[in-house]
Amino acid sequence: MAEVVMQRGLVRHEGRLAMMATVAVLVGVAFMTIGLRGNLDFVVELRAVRLAAMVLVGVAVAVSTVVFQTVCANRIITPSIMGLDALYVFCQTALVFALSGFGFAGIDPRLHFLGNFTAMTSLALALFLPMLRRRFDLTLMLLTGVVLGVLFRSLTTLLARLLDPNDFAVLQGTVFASFNAVEPDLLLLAGVITVACVAIAWRARHVLDVLALGTDTAIGLGLAWRGTAAGLLVVVAALVSASTALVGPMAFLGLLVVSLTERIVGTNRHAILLPAAALTAIIVLVGGQTVLQHALGGEGSLGIVVEFVGGIVFLAILFAGGRR
Amino acid sequence: MIEIAGVSLALGGSRILDNVSLTVPKGGVTALVGPNGAGKSSLLSLIARLRPLQSGRITVDGLPVDTTPSRQLARIMAILRQDPGVASRLRVAELVGFGRFPHNRGRLTAKDREIVAASLEQFDLSDLALRFIDTLSGGQRQRALVAMTFCQGTDYILLDEPLNSLDMFHARNLMRTLRRIADEHGKTVLIVLHDINHAASYADRIVAMKDGAVIASGETGDIIRPDILESIFGFSMRVENIAGRLTVLHHA
């Protein structure tokens, strides 16, 4: 009897997934086709690149947040607590400061991407790899990340004060997430990293279910906890670094998407949660960009819109949380 | 056989275990008793490799717990800690199913499903199978965790105060089940107990700890004696033979 009902539960989850996939495809089609005019080849290619970037970033942000929350056993945390986005903003500020806005714009985009990616993953490795050798507290490491984040933010503020107003405007363009100027080469590079990391996370979906039971129970069930957790955190760092280096910081999106997804699918099983969160992220990003472009008429920054709307939705979820 | 040799443990400068050596033979129920803070749970955590060994050596079935791959150990030894929180939003049947993880890495086979169903039945959970863990009472949740531990199907089972928050019916049911799997399937059960009469009734052997050291260990009949009990718990109590069972009158 139990078997049948469980099976039915699974079918229900899969039904929700199929529904979300349909919505995602519809939103994608809307984004590609609404208001299409002028030089079609050019416009379609431009939109396709943007769409691909949004799908990539959505998947990276969603998967990294789910995995990070599971490893940290905390459902209201985001990978931005590691200070990676603060480091990214600091690096851009330092570059603009050193090279001026003009020199900054002249950096080879591939070199720039790889530099940012390397800086962020190195920070994450420096934070998490000591965990493998010594018995280090995960909380302590996260706290280190928070402190480093504060350090980078203060340095950023300091440098930004010293910047020329024109340079500052250039900087503002890079530190808010935006899909308007994505290089196709970089898309490929970020795509390879993201696909590899997502494949690892998907293979680990059952392991993630066990990790979510708590450290002691997971070890009792035969997980090598420290190695597994450190490995997964490196995957998270690579995902966050790739998406941040591609379009800028989108940390808040993850928190919003995962909270929404958990309420939609009603399960913590990663086999459902991972794809569902990725689909939600795609819907939010592509839908948000479509609305921004056509309803609000602006070519503004989606990052700002997502953080504004996301913040309100998140508060609403928290206030409504009691009824569960 | 579980062999513990020269194990010490210090946490934040205070000594928790002091040069503990102990052998738990294969088969049968061994009860670990002693006052609060004696180091019983810490010793269990070390045997179950939940904590890294600081000094000494522990082997289970000849496998050193600090160097053997965790997965290999999970197939011969299951541990239930005191009150492990379950953060995930899971149904009872799903939680119990995780006990099969060391064998199937998350893909339940038909045989696994049979074992899960039997375990649910065994611990009177069939009616609760579809309830979410966070809607259960403390005792029901404890039974679900015990069922998960049993599902692991290991030769060695370590239980840290599993009777906590169980009612009399389910406490007796659990102790009888432990007795039965030890007798019929040759399992080795190491269980931390606070009710000395449960130990007296169901255990083959009793190991008594106090202040981080083993102060007595032997057959149940040799430990359930007024002088030894007084040295363990620090007050005198009568031991009577009531209807063929040693009974400690510790409430007077």
UniProtKB/TrEMBL annotation, chain A:
Keyword set includes Transmembrane: yes
UniProt record similarity statement: Belongs to the binding-protein-dependent transport system permease family. FecCD subfamily.
Gene3D superfamilies in alphabetical order: ABC transporter involved in vitamin B12 uptake, BtuC (1.10.3470.10)
Species of provenance: Mesorhizobium escarrei
Compartmental location: Cell membrane
Superkingdom field: Bacteria
Recorded topology in the membrane: Multi-pass membrane protein
Chief location bin: membrane
Gene that specifies this protein: yclO
Record's protein name: Petrobactin import system permease protein YclO
Automatic annotation (TrEMBL), chain B:
Cross-referenced SMART domains: AAA
Annotated InterPro entries: AAA+_ATPase, ABC_transporter-like_ATP-bd, ABC_transporter-like_CS, P-loop_NTPase, Siderophore_ABC-ATPase
GO molecular function, one term: ATP binding
Membrane topology: Peripheral membrane protein
Keyword tags: ATP-binding, Cell membrane, Ion transport, Iron, Iron transport, Membrane, Nucleotide-binding, Transport
A matching Pfam family: ABC_tran
Localization (cell): Cell membrane
Origin superkingdom: Bacteria
Residue ranges constituting the ABC transporter domain according to the UniProt record: 2-236
UniProt similarity note: Belongs to the ABC transporter superfamily.
This protein's name: Petrobactin import ATP-binding protein YclP
